[in-house]
Amino acid sequence: MDSLHSVGFYASAAVAVVAALLVAVLPGRGTRALALFVAGVGIGGIDLALSAGFAAGVVVLTFAGCAALIARHDYRSFDFTTTFGWRQLGAVAAGALLLGLAYAAYRGSFSHVTFNGGALGTAAVGRLLFAHDAVATDAVAVLCLIALAALTVTWRLRERGER
């Protein structure tokens, strides 16, 4: 990776991390939604630095949709009661996932893939993602799946409320 791509990658990563932390600590729905959208733009920038324009577009659109849902005036958060043990288990699992992703990032090497379909070709994006790092591909896929499930649930609840 040349120096320009490295600067873009690390700058986008910094924006994504700072914005994700702001999502957790900022008060108010509107500011959290804006921080969530900025985090999505940062993750999209990471994908662009890796020459995955299609994935960047999907990530930005997904985060924009989730931010729009959070910013709605009728958005209500749910306070699920969980025991201390489940929270600790979740924290340990999140730490293990972070260590796994850090290991994959440390051991991974940037691949050189020829793009036949341009920057937005799905075949080229698939080759790049699977040739570079399967763990990162799985993480993006899980993120997209969670976002689609949340959008589906919101859509169904909205339809049920209109009847």
What's the quick description here?
With about 160 residues, the chain is mainly alpha-helical. It is built from 6 helices and no strands. The protein has helices spanning about 5-25, 30-50, 55-70, 85-105, 120-130, 135-160.
How large is the count of helical segments? 6
Name of the CATH architecture = Up-down Bundle
In total, how many beta strands?
A: 0
Classify the fold: give the CATH topology: Four Helix Bundle (Hemerythrin (Met), subunit A)
Q: What is the percentage of strand-forming residues?
A: under 5%
What is the arithmetic mean of pLDDT?
78
Give the overall form: globular
Distance between the termini: 54 Å
Largest sheet: none
How many discrete domains? Answer: 1
Instruction: Give helix % range.
Output: over 70%
Q: What is the CATH class name?
A: Mainly Alpha
Structural class: mainly alpha
Q: Which regions are unreliable across 5 or more consecutive residues at pLDDT < 50?
A: none
Order of helices and strands: HHHHHH
Spatial extent as radius of gyration: 18 Å
